[in-house]
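Fold this: GIY-YIG nuclease family protein
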Amino acid sequence: MTYYVYILASRMHGTLYVGVTNNLARRVEEHRNGIASRFTRQNHVHRLVYAEPFEEIEAAIATEKRLKKWHRAWKIQLIEKGNPDWHDLLTP
């Protein structure tokens, strides 16, 4: 099974949310439908801007916890390293 650490954003340089899941498409859809997280629903945080796969759930959870403690600027750098225009990674 593959696990994902992901970052959602409300817009470019907007509000960020870090999470972990074993089904990225389903989890992002839950956020978009307002049933996954009160925070993402209230702050309109629905754009998938970063995702990193892991084979082990322990590694994914450890990375999620580490990213949540990062400074905002570090998270933005991580996003822009692989997605400089903050495109939604699940939008065709």
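The chain has a mean pLDDT of 96. Residues 57-69 form the longest helix (13 residues).
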